[in-house]
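Chain A, query sequence.
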Amino acid sequence: MSTMPTDPIYSKLLVNSLKPQFRPISSCIAAIVAMLSVENVFYTMTNLDSKSPEDKLKLKAIKKRKRFLSQSSDHLALLNIF
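Chain A, predicted structure.
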């Protein structure tokens, strides 16, 4: 576990996910650990002017991002993709 590039608790979770009783959900466990091991993957833009063409694209991106939002967590929304 000391050679894994994750926090110790996540390393233990990944190693334990290889046990036979957890085989069916081991890929989900790996996905959750991966999502919890990184910073926020969404970037929120500020100071937008709705008249600028670049800012119109940014506003469109913000609207697209809203469909990935979840009341509980953004991680849960990303997990729904799998």
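The chain has a mean pLDDT of 77. The CA atoms of residues 33 and 60 lie 30 Å apart.
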